[in-house]
Write a structure and sequence with these properties.
Helix content is about 25%, strand content about 35%. By secondary structure, it is an alpha+beta fold. Strands 2-5-1-6 form a 4-stranded antiparallel beta sheet, covered by helices on one side. Strands 3-4 form a two-stranded antiparallel sheet. The radius of gyration is 16 Å and the shape is flat. The protein starts with a strand and ends in a 7-residue tail after the last strand.
């Protein structure tokens, strides 16, 4: 089963120090290398800040284009992994390894099964 791991962090105007950035990057590299070695890594990307986002909102059949994210939240979607896992328990173990901290702030990982539309 494919699972998507949505990584949520708190954006900050204060950039990470080189040491903090190295810690986060090395954490992600370790997870990616291990998942790739096991042949389960299907995709991983970091997203640009929410200030670069554009939202298309449908209202009464009309598409409206808005700058920025859809909603104000404390945590923003920062990136994702897609892994092929045997089950949710395995996915949870992988999710626990994905770094989510930015500038000392906690984040979260949302794990969702990917619905295979081609198999319907």
């Amino acid at each position: 089963m494919r699972y998507m791991f949505l990584i949520y962090s708190q954006e900050s105007d204060e950039p990470l120090s080189p040491e903090e950035m190295n810690h986060v990057v090395s954490g992600h590299r370790a997870v990616m290398a291990d998942a790739e070695r096991k042949g389960i890594l299907l995709g991983v990307e970091r997203l640009k800040p929410t200030s670069t986002a554009t939202t298309i909102r449908m209202k009464n059949g009309v598409a409206m284009t808005l700058d920025g994210p859809f909603a104000e939240t404390k945590e923003q979607l920062a990136g994702y992994y897609i892994l092929e896992c045997d089950d949710l328990d395995e996915a949870i173990e992988w999710g626990k390894r994905i770094p989510t901290m930015c500038k000392g702030r906690e984040g979260s990982i949302e794990i969702r099964p990917v619905d295979d539309l081609e198999r319907r």
